Amino acid sequence: MTRKISTPLSRHDWIKAGQQMLIKSGIDSVRVETLAQNIGITRGSFYHHFKGRNELLQEILLDWKARATDQVIRRLKNTLYPPKQQLAIIFNLPTRGQSAKSAADFELAIRAWARRDEIARKMMDDVDKFRLNYISELIQTLGYNPKEAAQRAFILYSYLITISLSDPNKW
User: What pTM, to 2 d.p., does this model score?
Assistant: First the structure.
């Protein structure tokens, strides 16, 4: 059954559908046929935007990196908040309501995927490294040497991942 719509699906619509399927059912369910059936459209639209499934998967990873890391850190760096306040904002990210829950669901799906796929693992490792470096830099500005700042950043980051993947509203 194809859907009756006045506007064609965009590349972003397919990426979002892939993300939702990844979150709901895992990486094995992110298939062109399944996505087309769920959206209610033929596969032709997909192939208008992507060469194949692997390109969609790469775009899902890039979108996650952009939204969950690049944009967050860029916004913080562009504020006039001192490093201590930026750390407080980062510390509170997992408790920011529905948007935090949605981000955590996506993060969990990416991490599960990365356990089985080298490309997803590399992207996750790059994201973790970038986040840890940023947190470490903020901690260094508070007077800690690089080694101690890196250790503290790791502890803080581990806490953030753990809290975001559990239900912070239970605490």
Answer: 0.88
